[in-house]
Specification:
16% strand; 206 residues; six-stranded parallel beta sheet; 7 helices; binds flavin mononucleotide; Rossmann fold
Protein backbone atom coordinates (compact mmCIF):
# COMPACT_ATOMS: atom_id res chain seq x y z
CA UNK A 1 0.00 0.00 0.00
CA UNK A 2 1.18 3.47 -0.85
CA UNK A 3 0.78 6.83 0.85
CA UNK A 4 1.90 10.25 -0.37
CA UNK A 5 2.42 13.34 1.75
CA UNK A 6 2.59 16.90 0.46
CA UNK A 7 4.19 19.49 2.74
CA UNK A 8 3.00 22.95 1.66
CA UNK A 9 5.49 25.04 3.65
CA UNK A 10 8.34 26.80 1.84
CA UNK A 11 10.34 26.61 5.11
CA UNK A 12 12.77 23.75 5.69
CA UNK A 13 11.73 21.87 8.83
CA UNK A 14 8.53 23.94 9.05
CA UNK A 15 6.05 23.02 11.75
CA UNK A 16 3.49 21.77 9.22
CA UNK A 17 6.17 19.56 7.64
CA UNK A 18 7.00 18.10 11.06
CA UNK A 19 3.35 17.29 11.76
CA UNK A 20 3.05 15.68 8.33
CA UNK A 21 6.02 13.45 9.17
CA UNK A 22 4.29 12.43 12.42
CA UNK A 23 1.09 11.66 10.51
CA UNK A 24 3.08 9.40 8.17
CA UNK A 25 4.66 7.41 11.02
CA UNK A 26 1.82 4.85 11.38
CA UNK A 27 2.22 4.03 7.65
CA UNK A 28 5.98 3.52 8.01
CA UNK A 29 5.38 1.34 11.06
CA UNK A 30 2.97 -0.81 9.05
CA UNK A 31 5.32 -1.34 6.10
CA UNK A 32 3.62 1.00 3.62
CA UNK A 33 5.55 2.72 0.83
CA UNK A 34 5.78 6.40 1.75
CA UNK A 35 6.58 9.29 -0.59
CA UNK A 36 6.85 12.81 0.76
CA UNK A 37 6.94 15.93 -1.41
CA UNK A 38 8.41 19.04 0.19
CA UNK A 39 7.41 22.33 -1.38
CA UNK A 40 10.46 23.84 0.30
CA UNK A 41 12.48 21.92 -2.30
CA UNK A 42 10.26 21.49 -5.36
CA UNK A 43 9.39 24.01 -8.05
CA UNK A 44 5.76 23.95 -9.03
CA UNK A 45 4.54 26.83 -11.13
CA UNK A 46 0.94 28.03 -10.98
CA UNK A 47 -1.60 26.96 -13.61
CA UNK A 48 -1.49 29.46 -16.49
CA UNK A 49 -4.93 28.52 -17.84
CA UNK A 50 -3.54 27.67 -21.29
CA UNK A 51 -6.22 24.93 -21.43
CA UNK A 52 -3.99 22.67 -23.53
CA UNK A 53 -4.68 19.91 -20.98
CA UNK A 54 -8.27 19.96 -22.20
CA UNK A 55 -7.02 18.66 -25.58
CA UNK A 56 -4.26 16.34 -24.37
CA UNK A 57 -5.08 15.34 -20.77
CA UNK A 58 -1.58 16.35 -19.68
CA UNK A 59 -0.05 19.57 -18.38
CA UNK A 60 2.50 21.21 -20.67
CA UNK A 61 4.37 22.91 -17.81
CA UNK A 62 7.45 20.77 -17.36
CA UNK A 63 8.35 21.05 -13.68
CA UNK A 64 8.20 18.98 -10.48
CA UNK A 65 4.40 18.70 -10.74
CA UNK A 66 4.95 15.85 -13.20
CA UNK A 67 6.25 13.74 -10.26
CA UNK A 68 3.17 14.62 -8.25
CA UNK A 69 0.86 13.60 -11.12
CA UNK A 70 2.61 10.19 -11.06
CA UNK A 71 2.17 9.95 -7.29
CA UNK A 72 -1.54 10.77 -7.59
CA UNK A 73 -1.83 7.57 -9.67
CA UNK A 74 0.48 5.56 -7.40
CA UNK A 75 -0.98 6.34 -3.97
CA UNK A 76 -3.82 4.74 -2.03
CA UNK A 77 -3.89 7.56 0.51
CA UNK A 78 -2.78 11.19 0.65
CA UNK A 79 -2.03 13.61 3.49
CA UNK A 80 -1.52 17.32 2.86
CA UNK A 81 -0.15 19.88 5.30
CA UNK A 82 0.00 23.64 4.91
CA UNK A 83 1.04 26.73 6.83
CA UNK A 84 -1.72 29.31 7.19
CA UNK A 85 -1.00 32.27 4.91
CA UNK A 86 -3.53 35.07 5.07
CA UNK A 87 -6.11 32.67 6.50
CA UNK A 88 -5.58 30.11 3.75
CA UNK A 89 -3.16 27.61 2.21
CA UNK A 90 0.31 28.67 1.03
CA UNK A 91 0.67 29.83 -2.58
CA UNK A 92 3.05 26.91 -3.13
CA UNK A 93 0.35 24.43 -2.16
CA UNK A 94 -2.35 26.26 -4.07
CA UNK A 95 -0.38 25.73 -7.29
CA UNK A 96 -0.66 21.97 -6.76
CA UNK A 97 -4.39 22.14 -6.07
CA UNK A 98 -4.92 24.14 -9.28
CA UNK A 99 -2.63 21.98 -11.40
CA UNK A 100 -4.83 18.94 -10.66
CA UNK A 101 -7.08 20.61 -13.27
CA UNK A 102 -4.98 18.93 -15.98
CA UNK A 103 -6.00 15.45 -14.85
CA UNK A 104 -9.44 16.01 -13.36
CA UNK A 105 -11.22 14.16 -16.18
CA UNK A 106 -9.08 11.12 -15.41
CA UNK A 107 -9.75 11.41 -11.65
CA UNK A 108 -6.52 9.80 -10.44
CA UNK A 109 -7.43 10.33 -6.78
CA UNK A 110 -11.02 9.12 -6.92
CA UNK A 111 -11.94 6.66 -4.16
CA UNK A 112 -8.63 7.17 -2.37
CA UNK A 113 -8.39 8.36 1.23
CA UNK A 114 -7.09 11.67 2.55
CA UNK A 115 -6.63 14.05 5.45
CA UNK A 116 -5.16 17.46 6.20
CA UNK A 117 -3.03 19.46 8.63
CA UNK A 118 -2.84 23.26 9.07
CA UNK A 119 -0.40 25.30 11.18
CA UNK A 120 -0.83 29.03 11.78
CA UNK A 121 1.10 31.52 13.87
CA UNK A 122 -2.09 32.86 15.46
CA UNK A 123 -5.55 31.90 16.60
CA UNK A 124 -7.74 34.02 14.33
CA UNK A 125 -9.33 31.05 12.61
CA UNK A 126 -7.05 30.58 9.61
CA UNK A 127 -6.42 26.93 10.44
CA UNK A 128 -10.11 26.10 9.94
CA UNK A 129 -10.27 27.90 6.60
CA UNK A 130 -7.02 26.25 5.47
CA UNK A 131 -8.36 22.79 6.37
CA UNK A 132 -11.62 23.61 4.58
CA UNK A 133 -9.69 24.53 1.42
CA UNK A 134 -7.75 21.27 1.47
CA UNK A 135 -10.71 19.04 2.36
CA UNK A 136 -12.93 20.79 -0.23
CA UNK A 137 -10.27 20.21 -2.89
CA UNK A 138 -10.01 16.57 -1.78
CA UNK A 139 -13.76 16.09 -2.08
CA UNK A 140 -13.75 17.67 -5.54
CA UNK A 141 -11.12 15.10 -6.55
CA UNK A 142 -13.33 12.25 -5.25
CA UNK A 143 -11.13 11.63 -2.19
CA UNK A 144 -12.76 10.09 0.88
CA UNK A 145 -11.92 12.57 3.64
CA UNK A 146 -10.97 11.27 7.06
CA UNK A 147 -10.73 13.37 10.24
CA UNK A 148 -8.26 13.23 13.09
CA UNK A 149 -9.64 13.28 16.61
CA UNK A 150 -11.56 16.44 15.66
CA UNK A 151 -11.68 17.72 12.03
CA UNK A 152 -8.11 17.81 10.59
CA UNK A 153 -5.08 18.71 12.68
CA UNK A 154 -5.06 22.42 13.62
CA UNK A 155 -2.00 23.81 15.37
CA UNK A 156 -0.42 27.11 16.41
CA UNK A 157 3.35 27.52 16.11
CA UNK A 158 5.90 30.17 15.20
CA UNK A 159 9.53 29.37 14.45
CA UNK A 160 10.43 26.18 12.53
CA UNK A 161 10.58 23.29 14.98
CA UNK A 162 8.50 24.94 17.73
CA UNK A 163 5.80 22.31 17.30
CA UNK A 164 8.19 19.68 18.69
CA UNK A 165 7.41 21.14 22.15
CA UNK A 166 3.70 20.39 21.70
CA UNK A 167 3.35 16.73 22.59
CA UNK A 168 -0.42 16.78 22.15
CA UNK A 169 -0.24 18.11 18.56
CA UNK A 170 2.35 15.50 17.59
CA UNK A 171 -0.07 12.91 18.97
CA UNK A 172 -2.97 14.48 17.05
CA UNK A 173 -0.99 14.14 13.80
CA UNK A 174 -0.33 10.46 14.52
CA UNK A 175 -4.03 9.92 15.25
CA UNK A 176 -4.90 11.47 11.87
CA UNK A 177 -2.44 9.14 10.17
CA UNK A 178 -3.78 6.10 12.05
CA UNK A 179 -7.36 6.95 11.09
CA UNK A 180 -6.45 7.29 7.41
CA UNK A 181 -4.50 4.03 7.55
CA UNK A 182 -7.47 2.24 9.13
CA UNK A 183 -10.01 3.51 6.59
CA UNK A 184 -7.70 2.77 3.64
CA UNK A 185 -7.00 -0.76 4.90
CA UNK A 186 -10.71 -1.46 5.38
CA UNK A 187 -11.47 -0.05 1.93
CA UNK A 188 -8.85 -2.33 0.43
CA UNK A 189 -10.68 -5.32 1.90
CA UNK A 190 -13.92 -4.15 0.26
CA UNK A 191 -12.69 -2.92 -3.14
CA UNK A 192 -9.26 -4.54 -3.46
CA UNK A 193 -8.22 -1.14 -4.85
CA UNK A 194 -8.21 -2.80 -8.27
CA UNK A 195 -11.07 -0.75 -9.51
CA UNK A 196 -11.64 2.36 -7.50
CA UNK A 197 -15.26 3.19 -6.82
CA UNK A 198 -16.32 5.31 -9.75
CA UNK A 199 -19.07 7.55 -8.49
CA UNK A 200 -22.13 7.94 -10.62
CA UNK A 201 -21.40 11.28 -12.23
CA UNK A 202 -24.37 11.19 -14.59
CA UNK A 203 -26.85 11.61 -11.78
CA UNK A 204 -25.30 14.85 -10.55
CA UNK A 205 -24.26 16.34 -13.89
CA UNK A 206 -27.64 16.11 -15.62
C1 LIG B 1 2.95 35.29 4.23
C2 LIG B 1 2.52 34.80 5.58
C3 LIG B 1 1.20 34.90 5.97
C4 LIG B 1 0.78 34.42 7.20
N1 LIG B 1 -0.54 34.51 7.52
C5 LIG B 1 -0.98 33.97 8.68
C6 LIG B 1 -2.38 34.01 9.00
O1 LIG B 1 -3.20 34.54 8.28
N2 LIG B 1 -2.77 33.42 10.15
C7 LIG B 1 -1.89 32.81 11.00
O2 LIG B 1 -2.33 32.26 12.02
N3 LIG B 1 -0.55 32.76 10.73
C8 LIG B 1 -0.09 33.32 9.59
N4 LIG B 1 1.26 33.25 9.27
C9 LIG B 1 2.19 32.53 10.19
C10 LIG B 1 2.44 31.08 9.75
O3 LIG B 1 1.24 30.41 9.48
C11 LIG B 1 3.20 30.32 10.84
O4 LIG B 1 4.50 30.86 10.96
C12 LIG B 1 3.30 28.81 10.62
O5 LIG B 1 4.09 28.22 11.63
C13 LIG B 1 3.93 28.49 9.32
O6 LIG B 1 4.01 27.09 9.15
P1 LIG B 1 5.42 26.36 8.94
O7 LIG B 1 6.13 26.45 10.27
O8 LIG B 1 5.06 24.99 8.56
O9 LIG B 1 6.16 27.11 7.87
C14 LIG B 1 1.72 33.79 8.08
C15 LIG B 1 3.07 33.71 7.69
C16 LIG B 1 3.46 34.20 6.47
C17 LIG B 1 4.92 34.07 6.05
Amino acid sequence: MNVMGISGTPRTNGNSEILLRYALKPFENNGWNVKIFLLSELTIKPCNACESCRETGTCIINDDMQRIYDAFQWCNAIIISSPVYFLNVSAQLHSILDRHYAVDAEKPLEGKVGGAIAVGGGTTGGQTITLNTIYTWMLSCGIICVPGELFGVKAVAGKPGDILNQENQLKQAEILGSNILKVTTELKEITGFNNYPKYNQEVCVK
